[in-house]
Amino acid sequence: MSSNQAQHRAREILVRYCKRLPKIELHAHLNGSIRDSTLLELAQEHDQRGTISSYPNVREIILKEDRSLQECFKLFDVIHVLTTDHSFITRITKEVIEDFAAENVVYLELRTTPKSNVLTGMTKRSYVEAVLAGITKANLVLCENHQLHAHGIQVRLLLSIDRRETTDQAIETVKLALEMKSHGVVGIDLSGNPVTGNWKTFLPALTYARQCGLPVTLHCGEVHNPDEVEEMLAFHPDRLGHACVLQESQWERLHNLRIPVEVCFTSNLRTGCVKSICDHHFAWLYKTHYPLVICTDDRGVFSTNLSSEYAIAATSFDLSEHDLFELAKNATRFIFAEEPLKRHLDRIFAGVEPNYR
Ligand code: 6MZ
To answer: What are the structural domains, with CATH classification, of the chain?
Structure first.
């Protein structure tokens, strides 16, 4: 076997292993995780209804390979035009869950920004209800095919606040999350274009969430903004998304705070938040036994999946299969869901551990 063939074979074995591994996904945006084929179908439907002006343009934007961070946010604007119907929201939720289940994700914390739209009669509440309907549909389909998904997939929801929103809109989202707690909403996320708005606008809403016992995760340090990073660390959220661009003293501070970090390799590389995989802060986090979890961010927008992200960790940082298993297993410590579910997930990992030593 040539060395190329051997490498190819080793890669195949690794990818198969990563797919088989039970995994926890804690940073996945619903509208960033839609299949390209579904987006194209929705675009065609809108084209026939005359609700988008140029199908070829939309198609080109959807299928573009490389995107800067700002181009990503242009794409999100396009996607949001395509997903304004309740039925579409239900459909994409169901498909996204099926896709994660198909690669052995056993717990998915899906996040999405509740949106209102006067034209389609959508309110933040009806948006979330459409998402919940998608979760129910996915559960039904997956139950019917339970032999394909030995451990099943538990889905919980985080409601996101977009950095373009106002304080009042953010508070509305937190109130909605509190009302929907019994339906599987387990926390709040602050996301959106990092060069837009001021995160302090959302501090009243985030503080309110915390006072009411809702965990909070913040997108932090996707771009150079040391003052914001400083303030976010002082707020001490329950988790941090990305945390790529920090100053020396802030890395030290983070190290002491031990706030779990949601790491998204492909997203960080594609958007240029991190120059190369060798420069990725995962190396430092991992070496120092820092609490972290590997995630996808936007599996559709970045054409990735959680198994590939684990494979990237293995090949780029020389991790063994057992190291990957430990990473996946430890992620249960950082979920926002209730304790009994944590114990259920721990049992899944304990049950399969002998196969992964
Ligand atoms: C910050 C991001 C993001 O909420 O409509 N989003 N926010 N940084 C990122 N890194 C690339 N990727 C996605 O999903 C899409 C929304 O998630 C946030 C943005 O607000 C985007 O509009 P939902 O389901």
So the answer is: 23-356 (3.20.20.140)
